Batch of 2 targets.
Target 1
Amino acid sequence: MTRVFMEGSEVIAKTVVLCKPHVISAYPITPQTHIVEGLAKLVADGKLKSKFMEVESEFSAISSVAGACAAGSRTFTATSSQGLALMHEVLFATAGMRLPLVMVVANRALSAPINIWNDQQDSISERDSGWIQLYVETVQEASDTLIQAYRIAEDNKVLLPIMVCMDGFILTHTMEPVDLPGEREVREFLPGYNPTHAILDPKRPMTIGPFAYPEPYFKLRKELSSAIDSSRKIVSEVNEEFGRKFKRKYGNGLIEEYKNDKDFAILSMGSVVGTIREVVDKRKDVGLVKIRCYRPFPKEDLIKALKDKKMVLIVEKDISLGLGSGSVFSEIRDILYSLKKRPQVVGFVAGLGGVDIRSKDIEKTVEQSKKMNDGEVKWLM
Amino acid sequence: MKKSEDKLEPGGVIKRPGSSKEVKTGSWRTFRPVVTINCKGCGICVQFCPEGCIEIKNGKAVIDYDYCKGCLICVNECPVKAIKSEKEVK
C-alpha cells in the first residue's frame, strides 16, 4: 500500500490500472475527462496493457465495452451527464444481457441550461436501468469502491453492470491523500475475470442478446429484477471482505449510519455526506444516514435505521420534475409508509448545477425543517 | 428465441447454435423472389442473401420461403436476371 496525494481522477486512473481491464473505451466529457486522459496516457506509456478504443461518442463507448464484455473481457468506461444520457438505451440492454460492466460516472448536471458542475441528476435518472449504483463520499471511497465493483459485478450470483458515482469536480478534481493498495493485494482480492455465461468461443457457440417473445421477455425481466434484488447481499459481503483485507470499509456496504442515535436523522448520498458529518459532529441533536448503494435500494437497512426517528431530513442533488421532490425523498417516504408509527419526512432539493452546500446551509435545513410539515419539500437556495 | 423457451439462461443467452432456425420469419413478405428456369446455379445470390436462406440444389438456386423476407436483393444481384419478383399473395 502506498499513500499518495493526488487528484481524484488520477486516483481513479491508477485504480483502474490495478484492476487490469482488457478493454477501455470512453469519450471525453467534463468532469470525467481527466480519468480517461490519465488512462490513455498510461496505455500509451505502456504502463497499462489494456486495449484503449477511441470512439466518436458515448453511445459507441458503452457499445464497445458491451461487445468486449460479451466476448469475455473485463472492461472499463467513464462518463458524465449528457454522455450518460446518450448511453441510456445501451444501459438497459447491457443490464438485460447481464454484462458485468464497470463504469465511473463523474456526476454532473444535465442540460438545459448547459452547466458543467456537479449534481446527481444524471445517474439518478438512470435508476431504473438495472445497473447497480454506488455513490461515494470521498476519493478514497471512490478508489476502494471501484475495486469492489468488479468483484460485485463479476460475481456469478450477480452478473450485473455497476456505476460508481462520484461527484464531479468535488471529488474528481480535488487533491486528497489516498491509500492506494498494492498490485499483489488487489490481485488477491480481485482475481481475473473468468466468464462462463457470455463469452466468444468458437467451441461454445452462443447467441447473446436475442429477440424474445412476450412470455420469455416477461420471465427474463422478472429474473433481472430478482438478480439485482439479491445483489444487496453480495454488495455487503464484498464490502466486509474488503474491510478485512484492506482495513477500510463503508458502513455495511449499502448504508452507513453515523451517530444515528438521535430522534433526528439527516439522509443523503455522495460527497455532501462529508459536510453533513461535520454538522453532526458540531450539533448534538442530529444523526446521519448515508446511502451508499442506491440501486438496489437498501429498503430493510433504511427502515431499520429510520423507523424510530421523529424526523428524517433528506438532502439530495436531483429533482424529479413534475413530482416536486427528489427521487430519494419519494422512495424513503414509500418504504416508511407501512410502519405503524412513521417519522416525519421532509426534503431539500440542493446543490443543483454545482451550487455549493456548505455546513451552514445544512444547519439552515435543520432549523427550517422544524417549521416544515410532514412531506414538505423545499429548495435550498 | 422460441415462443416458449424451456430453460432461460441469465440474460436470455441461447447456448445452442443455429437457434434462429427454430423461429420461422418468412410471413411478412410483400414481394416473393421466384427462381426461373434461366438459373445457372452460379451461387451469387447465396452470397448476397442477408437471411442466408438460399441454397444451390442440383445446380439451381432454391429459396427457403420460411425465412425469406422478400428484400429482393437476389433479384437485383442475379447476373442473368434469372430471379423474378412477384407480388406475394396470401
Target 2
Amino acid sequence: MYLLSETCDGFRDINISKLKKETVSESTRQTHSAKPWVFRTYSGHSSAKASNKLYRSNLSKGQTGLSVAFDLPTQTGYDPDNPLSRGEVGKVGVPIAHIEDMSELFANIPLGEMNTSMTINSTAAWLLALYIVVAEKQGVALEKLAGTTQNDIIKEYLSRGTYIFPPKPSLRLVTDMISFTVQNIPRWNPINICSYHLQEAGATPVQEISYSLANAIEILDRLVGENEFSQETISKIFSRFSFFVNSGIRFIDEVCKVRALTALWEEIGRTRYGVTDQKSLRFRYGVQVNSLGLTESQPENNIIRIVLEALGVTLSKNARCRALQLPAWNEALGLPRPWDQQWSLRIQQILANETDVLEHEDIFDGSHVVQNRTDQLTSTSREEMEKIFAMGGAVAAIENSYMKQELVASHSERMQKIENGETTIVGVNDFREGEDSPLLEATQSFLKVDESTERQQIENIQRFRTKRNDSEVSRSLRNLTEGLRNGQNIMPLSIDCARSGVTTGEWGNALRGIFGEYRAPTGVVISSPRNSDSQVRRIQNQVKELTRQLGRPPKILIGKPGLDGHSNGAEQIAVRARNVGMEVVYQGIRLTTEEILSSARDEGVHLIGLSILSGSHEVLLLDLIDRMRSTHCNIPIVAGGIIPKEDAEKLIGEGVKKIFSPKDFDLTHIMGEIVNVIADESKN
Amino acid sequence: MNLKTDLPTQILVRDRRAIASALNLIDDQRPKQKMEAARLLSALSDIESKPRIGITGPPGAGKSTIINALATNLAGQGLTTGIIAVDPSSRQTGGALLGDRIRMREHSDNEQPFLRSMAARDRLGGISSATHAGAAILEAAFDLVIIETVGIGQSEDEVRTLVDTLVYVCQPGAGDLIQFMKAGILELPDIFVINKCDLGNSADRSLDELRSALGLTTKTDDDWKPPVLLASGENLTGISELCDQLTEHKHFLQEGIGLRRRREGRDQFIRKEILLRYGSLGFEALGGDRVLGELCSKWHSPSPYEPLMHLDKKIRGLLQELLNRTNEP
C-alpha cells in the first residue's frame, strides 16, 4: 500500500512578479485567488510507451505536472534481465534501462515546458543524466529544464529501502548532483528531503520534523564544509532544497506540523547558513497524503480520508504545499486504474477551483490553539534535533540505528493502539457492519500489469545491446569508473554514459564495483514489548507448548524477496514474533528466492514468512514453491502484502499456507495463525 | 537416501541439508532426539580438528561484516567456512531476533559459507552445549569454523572455551573499548580488530590506547603478543592482514599448545555445565574439582560431549542413590 503513494514532487519556479503581487495583497485583504499548487499524480507502469500514453492523457485531464514512478530494477540499478529483477519489471513504475526508453517516455512531451518530478534516489544521477540527454535530443537548453529528483538517500536507509551504496558515497552522489544542478540547471530541485516516508514508517510529527530537518542539515553541512562557497552560492543552494511531506488523517495536527516546519526551516537558514533573502528562506514542499491509513476493508471510505488529509496541507496559506499528489482509494487492494487516479485528481480540482480555500489569507493566524500546538512541536523537535547532533548528525544516527529503532518503536505503538481499540479506524476496528460496496463489484477493481511485460523488456534491452557501439560503451564506463575514483563529479560522467548507450544495470554495477553495497541497520533488534495483553500472553503460552512439541522453540525466517524495500511491515512482524517467544531469523530486503530457500534450510526454520508489496507476489512465491519441490524441501510458507483476493486463492491452491493482506491489522492474530501453521505441519 | 543413518557420512561430504538437520537434532530437547544426537556426536568425535575462530565484540561493531569479508577471503583460498552466530534471547519473552544473515552477502563464484544463527536462550554469554555440539558438526564438514557472539564483557570467557583463536572486534570511539578494559578481560583475545577504520582519527586514537593497555597485561601463553589491526569490513581493508594473523596464530598454537588450550577450555566448560545442571550439591556428590579433573583427563578429544554424557549419567546415578537413601525410614 505504500508503493503507489511515494513520490516526489517538483515545483514550478516562483515567478518574481507574482511574488511581488502577493506581498502587496498580503497587506490588505486579498481580493483575488492565490495561484493553486501543482497538481500531480504519481504514475508509471509496464513500459515507457504505456507510461507515455498515460502521462499525455493525465495532462489532458488537467494535471499540471508530471510525477514519474520508476520500477524497482530502475530504482536499484539493475537491468530487466538481471535475476534480481525477476517479477519486478514494470510493476510499481516504468522500467527505464537506457536512453531509448527515456526518449520514448517523454515522446511528444516538450521538456522545456514541463515540470517533471522523478521519484528516484540511489540512481538519481543516472536518471537525471538520461533526462538531460533526452532534452538535448529535443533541442531544449538545460536552463529551461524544471523539475525535481527525489535524491534523498537518508530516508531510504530508514524506510523506503531502495538504497544501494553505503552512506558516505551515497551522500557524495547527492552533493555532486546539487553542485552540478545549481550551476547548470538553475530551475531544478536536486533534492527533495522526505518526511513522507518517515510517517509511513510510523513517525510521530516530532520525528517527522526533526529527522527530516536533521537530514537536510547533514547534506548542507557537507556541501558547505567541503567547498569554499560564497554566501551567495550557499543561499542559492539552500533555496534549491525542497521537501516532500506526508499528511495524515489528524489534519489539524498536520496544519501545525507544516507551520512548525516552515518556522524551523527559516530559522535554520538564517542562523546556520546566513541566508537573509526571504524568498530563499521559504520552506517549499510538495505532498502526497498518507497511504499508511488507507484501508482494505470498506475501501470507499478512503476517498473521504484523502480529502481530509488534503486539507491539512492546503488550508494554511503561509504553509501551503507547492505541489500535491493524492493516492487512489483502492491502493490497499492493488494498483489503481486510470479512473481511480482521475477521481483523486478531481479532489484537487474541486478543492482549488470550487471551494474558497485559495481566496483567504492564512486563516490560522491569530489562533492560540494552532499557535500553541505549533510552538510545542517546534520546541520538542528542536530538542530531538539536538539529540541527533550530539550523536554526530543524521548519518551517525542511521549507522548507530537510533532513528530506525525509534521509528520501529513508534510504529509498534501505533499498531498496538489500533489492536486494542485506542485508535479508531472506521470499518477496521469499529463500525464494521455495513452494506457491500458496489465499487468492488467491477470484475477487476484495480489494475493488473501484464506478466508478458517483463519478457518484452528483456527482449527490448537485448535488442538494444546488439545495436550500440560496444567500444563507445566500454570507453564511457571506463571513464566513469576512473573519474569517480579521481573524485570527478558524477553528472558529466553519467551524461557521457547515457549518450553512448550504457544501460541502467551497467551504470549501477560500475558504481557497486567502486563503492560496494550496503545493508542498513534494521532497528528491530532492541525494541521490546511495551505491554503484553492477555491475547499476547495466550500466544506466548501456545509458543511454549509448541516448543515442547518441537523439542526446540519455533524458529521462523522473515524476509522480503524481490527488490521492494518497504520493510516496515516485515519488521513489525519480526518484532512481534520475537515478543511472543519465537526465534526469528530476520533476513531483510532484496533477496532472491534461491537465497531465501538456502537460508531457510541452513537455519533449520519451521516456517518462512515473506512480505511483498510490489505486486510481484505471484511470480516470486510460485518460483519459491517450484524450487522447494525440486529440492525436496518442505518448509511451510506464509506471505503478506498487497495481494488481491483472487491471487491469494490461487497461491493457497499452490501450497502457500496463509496469505495476509492490509486488512489483517491485528499482529497478535497473525502470530496465532503462524503458530497454528507450524503446529499442523509438525503433526504431519 | 536415508538421511538419518547416513548422517555422519553426509556431513563429511558437506551435504548442506544433512548438516542443517544435524544442527536441528542437537538442539532438540526431546529424550529420543537427545539420544540420537549423542550417537551422532560420538560418530563424529574422532574427526580431525579444524581451526576454530571466535569473533566477539559489542553490538554494532561490525562483526558480521568482518566475518562476511573473512569468509570471502577464505573462499578465495579455496577454504570452506561454517559459521555459528549467537544472538541474545529476550529474558522477558524467550524470543530472539537473529539478524546476522542480513550482512552475509552472496558469494557467487565459490561455495557459500554455511551460517546457522542460534539464540542464546537462558545463557548470558550464549555458549551452550548446543553451541559446542554445533561447532563439532561444522568442524566435521568445513575447513574452518567461526563462532560469533555478542561480547560485552560476559561471553568472552565462555567463547574462549570453544575456540583456538579469539578475535575481539570493536569500533573506534572510546566507549566500547573502555568498557572492555574495565571488564578486566583484556588478556583473553588473541587478536584485536578496530573496525570502521575509515572513521579516521578516532581509529588511530583507539589503536594507541589499546596498544598501551595491552603492554600492561600479561598473556598466559608466553610468547604471543596480541596484534591490534585496523580494518574496514565495508571497504575490505585489513581483511588479508587479519587472515595472515589468524594463520600466524595457528602456527603459534602448534599441536601441543593448541590441544592443551582446547582441553583446558573443554574442562572449564564441563565444570560450568555440571554446576549449571546440578548445582553445588551435584558437584560435591561427584567429588568436587579434584575428581572432575581426573575424570576429564581420561578423555583426549577436545570435544566435551563424551565426558559430559558420561558425567551426566554418573551424577544422575549418584543423585538417585542419595534420594533413595534419604527416603529410607
